[in-house]
Structure formats: structure tokens, C-alpha cells
Amino acid sequence: MLENIGLFFSYFWEIRAQVAELTLQHLWLSLAGVLLGTLTAVPLGIFISRRPKISSFVIDLAGALYTIPSLAILGFMLPFLGLGWLPTITALTIYSWLPVLRNTCTGIVNVDPAAKEAALGMGATSNQLLFRVELPMAFPVIMAGIRTVAVLTVGITTMGALVAAGGLGSLIFTGISMMDNRMILAGTIPVSALAVALDQLLGFLENKAGVWTGVRS
Amino acid sequence: MVEAIEVELQSVSKFYGEDKVVDAVSLHVNQGEIFVLIGPSGCGKTTTLKMINQLIPHTSGRILVRGKDVTELDPVELRRSIGYVIQYIGLLPHLTIRDNITFVLQLKKYNKKMQRERAMELIETVGLPVSYLDRHPRELSGGQQQRVGVARALAADPEILLMDEPFGAVDPITREQLQLELLRLQETIKKTIIFVTHDMQEAFKVGDRIGIMRGGRLVTIGTAMDIVRERDEFIRNFIGQGAIFSALDTIPAARAIIDDLPIVQEGAALDDDVLSLTGDWENIFIVDGQRRCLGYISLSEIKGQRKIDREKVTACPPPCRPGDSLKKVIEEMLWGNRAWLPVVSEEGYFLGIVSFQSCASLLVG
């Protein structure tokens, strides 16, 4: 057992340059997916939070997309977007939608009605209500959605290797086809580490922003 | 004296579909008065209040604020010119107390220096320490939070304040304290306040005039005394039992004075005019040259004599002032086991007496 661990580490050390390169590649694919997903889903979430009649429909739609297996999405996009980073990032964006959309919408809808009524009663415009009351108060819930997405995305990015987008998935899938456990582990461990690191980073940023907006003291 | 009307509702109604929530309500609120809207839940009092700052638009009728029809005003500007205090307080939890108090000023984009000064001023107005400005709402008790809610409503120095069950969410002791503080504050700020509550005691305590609502209609409007004299069964039931003591708390003894009493000056002889005033009253009061009450003597002691025997004059019970509340006077009578108390002015003049009987007949009307 100990011998095996030793063997793994010496192998890992041998291919460290490759692992580092793939990790960076993996990271930027994931970040791009999370960022694009957030930038599209937060405004959409705000939009549907104002329209209760369509909000559940839109969230169900995002939910339906969420349930499609990642392999199927990548395969489906192949004729349109081809191979490489483009279909991968597109797929990651689609997977980001549900958690961010739902948390943004429910976060805003569940803001204490007394706070909203007080703000409106004091003469806040709808923009002032959104930026001074609703978004700051929903911020922790929206951040929770984004953090969920970040962890999830780092995992799904692995599939990008199947459409030649690179990333740590390359090591894992090559390892599987060569039945080389060392190689699978050399891809898997950095994926997990990346997911945990990204979650922690976002948590740290959330706290900083929370102090700044006054949500946390 | 003609009082300026700050807020006027002319046959205002609110429909939700077929449902008449507010039905042809007409009222006016004078400058500097506290007008209380009261009624059982679902009577439309809160809806009426929210139509004034157009948080709820009315279906028909006219609402005038400082003489202007609210539908012709920009709703945002209208609301910024009216202070608003709500039951659930609604402080913004992510902002400090300072930023909560100056929220309207931020919306109006006042400069920071002015905002800071105003926050300092207001936190003292509502009786909280300046150090609280840097705290967050969750660090304050319910009563303290509502004080901040009142300070926030006063930030832009509005002429009109709307208060929607402002003390409904705090414990009874704090509520009473806040009511007294509001009255004390009102002495100096002299705002026009429209105050919604379902607590009759609170209405009697804070209201200059009270409007009772039922099923969307305004049933009656009047002072505490007008209200307790109402014969209507719904109103009687609604006032309930203990509330009459709160009404008595707002009525001054001056209203229940009996002043057509047989009074003679010390040393003077009793004449028929004085004796004719006795009626069922069997005491004659003796005053000195400055109209200070020296005491009284009962008719049975006089026994037809024209001269009053100083020996037989009884000293009066401890007097009350015309400004004392009837509640206080009645309490004094109960504690002292007296049927009546003399009323004496600040200068010491004997004005008459207040008795259980005169209090009762005042309320019967």
C-alpha cells in the first residue's frame, strides 16, 4: 500500500509539468463557464423575480436543461459548435443556469416584505429598491448558488476532454483507456483540489463583499 | 380659528374586483393633529392609510395632500415628502442604524455631511445613544428598532407622518413607553400624524381625533369623549371594557366641573339666592376674599341659621387641577374615599367640584 502511494507520487512528480498545464487549462474553462453562467443567470433571475407568472416556467426550463447528461449536450452541440473550448464553455454555462437563476429569484422574492414596503413607502424608485435593498439582502443566497455552480462546474469541465477542449479530463480519460490508475488519480486529485480551492476563494470574496455591503459585520 | 387641512379624503373607495375594501371614506386631518384610524382587522384602515401615500392606488374618490390631488403628483416624490412607519419596523438589516435613518436622504442624494449631522440629531430626538449609529438593526431590541423607525421617518423633516400600527410588534410595557414618547415628541415637532391601530386604549391615549372603521366604512369620527359617548352597539362593543379608563385619561377634569354651587364669602350672611342653589346638593362652600376655599358646611348643620358657625366648617379634601385627567381625579376619589374633590386653579381660585356623578353624566352625554 505504502509502496503504491510512493509509486504514485514519483509518477506524479514525473508528469508535473503536464499536470500543471492541464490544471490551468481546466481552471480557465471552469471560470469562463461560471462567469458566463452568472452573468446571464443573475439578470435573468432578477427579471423573473418581478414576474411570478413566468418565473416557475423559466426555472423549470433551466431545470430540464440541467438534467440532460453532459455527454449528451456535448454530442448534441458537436454539429453546431464543433470541437474544443467553445462547446465546453457553452455546456458549462447551461449547467450554471439552474442554481444561479433559482437562488437569485428566490433570494429576491424572499427579501423581508417589511423592508421592501418601508423602502417603497419612503419613496425608493424600483431601481433604488433593487440595488439598495433587494440585491444586498439577497446577496448571500445568490452567492450560495454561485458557489454550488463553481464546485459543480469544475467537475463537469472534465468532460471537455472528450471534445478536445483539454483540461484535467484528458489525463482521466487517457488513464481509463490505458487502465492506468496512476494517471486517473493524477487527473482526479487536482480536479477535487481545484473545486475546493475555488469554493473557498468565493467564500472569502463573499465575506469581503458582505462586509462592504453591510450584510456581515 | 381655522385649522389648515393637511390631508383630505373625499369619498375614497378601493375595490379589489367586486370586493369593496374601502367604501366611500371621507375625512380630513388638520395640521398638527394626531388622527387615529381604528377598527377590527380587515376593516380597511391600513388600506386607507396606504392610499394616502399611494402605495395602494385608490379606485375612486379624491385624496388631497396639502391641497393637491395625489394622482397628479409623482408617487416617488409624494412618498419622500411623507414620513412612513410600519408595524414590522422594516429596518434594512444590511445597513447600519446611521444608514437606516438617512435612507430617504440617500434616496434624495443629499450630501454626506448633512446626512451625518441629521443622523446625530435624530438619534437623540428618539432617545437613543449616539454610539448606536454604527450598530446594525439586529443588535437592537424591538423597542429600540422602532425608535429608529420613527427617526428614519422624520429624516427628511416631513410635515405628514403615516404610522401603520407602529407599536404593534413590541411588548405592552415598551408600547406604553413609546406612546408617551410619541406624545412628548409631538409637542415639539407638531407633525400631522395619521396613526392606524386596533388597540382602543392606544387610540384614546395618542389620538386627538379618532375614526372608527368597520367593513370598509368609516362609522364615526370624534374625540375620545365623543367616542365613549357613542350609543351604537358596534362601537360600544369595540371600545370594550378597560378602554374607558384610557379615554378618561385624556379628558381633563375641567370638563366635569360642577360650578353652580352654593358659595358664600367668609363672614357674609346666607341669603336666599345662595340657599336656592343647593338643590340636591347639601353642602355650602365658604371662600375667603381671594376666592380660596376654606371648607364646607352641610345644610343640616346650619339648621336655618343665617350666620355660619366657623367651628362647624369642615376642611375640603385635597384639591385637583382643572388640567388633571378624569382618570387621576377618580383614582384620588377612590383612594381618599371621597364622593367629590374640589377643583382649584393654578392661582388657587376655587372653581367648583368634580364628583363621581358629574363624571358619569359627562360620559352619558
Summarize, please.
The complex is a heterodimer of chains A (217) and B (365). Chain A has 217 residues and is mostly helical.
> Low-confidence segments of chain B, ≥5 residues, pLDDT <50?
none
Structural class of chain B: alpha/beta
Shape of chain A: elongated
What pattern of helices and strands is seen along the backbone of chain A? HHHHHHHHH
CATH topology of the largest domain in chain B, anyone? Answer: Rossmann fold
Number of domains of chain B: 2
The residue fraction in helices of chain B comes out at: 25-40%
Q: State the CATH superfamily name of chain A.
A: MetI-like
Number of domains of chain A: 1
SS element count, helices of chain A? 9
- Percent of residues of chain A in beta strands? under 5%
Helix content of chain A: over 70%
Helix-strand sequence of chain B: EEEHEEHEHHHHEHEHEEHHHEHEEHHEEH
Q: How many strands, what sense, and barrel or not for the largest sheet of chain A? A: none
Task: Write structural notes for this entry.
The complex is a heterodimer of chains A (217) and B (365). By secondary structure, chain A is mainly α. Chain A has a single domain, classed as MetI-like fold (Orthogonal Bundle). Helix content of chain A is 84%, strand content 0%. In chain A, α3 runs antiparallel to α5, α4 packs across α5 and α6 runs antiparallel to α7. The model of chain A has no long low-confidence stretch (mean pLDDT 90). Chain B starts with a strand and ends with a helix. In chain B, the strands form 4 sheets. Chain B has a 6-stranded mixed beta sheet with strand order 6-7-8-3-9-10, with helices on both faces. Chain B has helices at residues 45-52, 75-80, 97-101, 103-107, 112-125, 142-154, 172-189, 200-206, 224-228, 233-239, 243-250, 272-276, 299-302, 326-336, 356-364, and strands at 5-16, 19-30, 34-38, 60-65, 68-69, 82-86, 160-164, 192-197, 209-214, 217-222, 263-265, 283-287, 293-298, 340-344, 350-355. Chain B folds into 2 domains: 5-251, P-loop containing nucleotide triphosphate hydrolases (Rossmann fold), CATH 3.40.50; 254-364, Roll (CBS-domain), CATH 3.10.580.10. Chain B is built from 15 helices and 15 strands. In chain B, α5 (112-125) packs across α6 and α8 (200-206) packs parallel to α11. Chain B has 365 residues and is α/β, with parallel strands linked by helices. The mean pLDDT of chain B is 87. At the A-B interface, α6 and α7 of A face α2, α4 and α6 of B.
